[in-house]
Amino acid sequence: MSDIIRRDPRAEWIARNRLHPLHAAMQTQQTSWMGPNGLIRKNPHASAAGFIGPNGLKRIDRSGAQQGTASGARRTAAAEVQLPLHQVADPAFYIAVVPDMVGGRLGSHDRDLLGLAHSLAGNDGAVLAIVFGEHKESSFANAGVDRLLVIDGDEYQGYAPEQLVQGLRAVDNQFAPRHWLLPDSRTGGGELGRRLGAALGERPATRVWQIKDGQCIGRAGAGQQDMQRALPRLILAAAECAEPVSETRHEALPVELSANVARSISRIEDLGSVAVDPAKIAMAEAEFIVSGGNGVKDWPLFHKATTALGATQGASRVAVDDGHMPRDRQVGATGTWVTARVYMAVGISGAIQHLQGIGACDKVVAINMDPGCDMIKRADLSVIGDSAAILQALIDAVDNYRNGAQRDAA
Amino acid sequence: MSTKVISLVSIGAHPSSGRARRAEQDSRAVELGLQLAGGDLQVVHAGDPHEEALRGYLGMGLEHLDVLEQPAGADVLGVLGDYLRGAGAQLVLTGSQAETGEGSGMLPFLLAEKLGWPLVVGLAEVESIENGTAQVLQALPRGQRRRLKVRLPLLATVDNAAPKPRQSAFGPARRGVLAAQDVQVVDDELLGEEALQPARPRPKRLKVIKAKSGADRMKAATAKASGGGGKVLKDVTPQEGAEAILKLLVEEGVLR
């Protein structure tokens, strides 16, 4: 941003317009108000704070008509605009949402679902999000959650679908939500929703992609047909079923279950995940990819590092063209578009074609010599340095970590 | 192996021509059943016994296929439940979703609820069956597998992670018997023919830029992909860098 001081006619207009949704955020501190005993109270600091005029000079307007940006702080274009708070003090009904929370965070499917729930709730209802176990999400308020119910406990650890259904049954008894919304996804929501439907005796609408005027449309059969029906109580919605919430801020007030959840006798015992050869997982659906590019000089070390990390291998176009990696390992516009949750780029500067290919990745880690390259701008964590030294240190660190875990277990 | 295995099959539809065929996931259920039980595998279909597409399953090496005679649009939950209970099945395999009709994928869940059996979703492999429990591998998204120990009798759905179905041979398909059984019919009121319509293309999601000023809009239109606010570690020893990376990997839970 340049340092030239400019008027913001739009902000001034919003500050004048009482009906504008951002009006409250644009108000200055109150300069005078009626006290509890009927006396007029003044805040001399607020009026003396003034505002910066168009020529950069401080102006004080004691007439009381002063409007615009608060306490003289200039509003820069990068300033965060506080979205208006959507409050539901006494909800008339609830819309229950059970997000998938892949990796402990709200995914795009979950956000779409919360947007749909918000549109179903309107002004009177509250969106109740139900999360099992620990989570790492910090932006429930911006995603459109009015009430947040975290159900925690040992019995929900691992794969315990029957216990989750017991938890949701308890929610159903206490809150009696008008609608249940679950993502129709393979990561858990589709299964849990169908189990819930069977347990509650509700016939769900599945693969729903549009809800309009009390009717919902979902895909049927193998996707060649649509099925339109009146909106049922249980909805399993497809991805992109609605726009995510972006105009309002929500309370995300924590609520709790009043009764204890019945413990179901587990007929399914989780024996833990099985090691899968990462090289056999298709690159497009691998969860953790380590890619090498032009900056990798020691390829045997790179292979050793990916084996130690248990990651699927990827490569940039240069590495493939130079013959260091096979063609089917190329990530980018001309190779595979990957959807990894964690993508580690070793010695890749980040050509635009490569960045397109990793557009859907959640967390990007970059190891590079050049602190100014595009990959570093994209990455969530970058380490500047020699890739060989860092990879070697990483192998040692992983070995230490694994051995430490084994020692703890023993 | 003395475990009784039953596969439930439906009639599929070819994805482009819409012609009736053996359903993709159901034939995987038959394949898995054949690998487990061999010739003792029992295969059941509820629907029209004169449907030629059913012979696609017979061609996989089955001698006969039980058909519970039902008209189109009937609710088959009751008759299938009675059949499975009567047959004394220990392991029931189905596809996860039908290719015709509503295809909600609810049938296995409702059957499991009705019979009171445990249900495993996305079965990839049965490792062992002994002492009334089965040790199975469940397919998870992103190519992962999970090992489960489940009490029998068990209902399991298979999806595309299960073994590929063997080819259907013409001769056995002709020789096989479609054994029709008369059972009662319960109508499904919701699923009328008018409820299903050809799929409409879904509207494409537009990228809406909610910028407050012209400068923001310009920036949004011209910006390269950027995470924004990433942590950059400069002038650190390789060990410190590796520790930071390891911490992130552990936090994300990708390190197994």
In short:
Chain A has 410 residues and is α/β, with parallel strands linked by helices. Helices cover 27% and strands 23% of the residues of chain A.
Task: Write a structural description.
The complex is a heterodimer of chains A (410) and B (256). Chain A has a 9-stranded mixed β-sheet with strand order 12-11-10-13-9-6-7-8-15, sandwiched between helices. A 5-stranded parallel β-sheet of chain A has the order 18-17-19-20-21. Chain A contains 11 helices and 21 strands. Chain A has 410 residues and is α/β, with parallel strands linked by helices. Chain A starts with 8 loop residues before the first helix and ends with a helix. Chain A folds into 3 domains: 9-72, no CATH class; 85-255, Rossmann fold (3-Layer(aba) Sandwich), CATH 3.40.50.620; 278-409, TPP-binding domain (Rossmann fold, 3-Layer(aba) Sandwich). The longest helix of chain A has 23 residues, at 387-409. In chain A, helix 7 runs parallel beside helix 11 (387-409). Chain B has a single domain (5-190), classed as 3-Layer(aba) Sandwich (Rossmann fold), CATH 3.40.50. A 7-stranded parallel β-sheet of chain B has the order 7-11-6-1-4-5-12, sandwiched between helices. A 3-stranded antiparallel β-sheet of chain B has the order 8-9-10, with no helix packed on it. Chain B has a two-stranded antiparallel sheet with strand order 2-3. Chain B starts with a strand and ends with a helix. Helices cover 27% and strands 27% of the residues of chain B. Chain B is built from 7 helices and 14 strands. With 256 residues, chain B is an alpha/beta fold. Chains A and B meet through helix 6, strand 10, strand 11, strand 12 and strand 16 of A and helix 4, strand 7, strand 9, strand 10 and strand 13 of B.
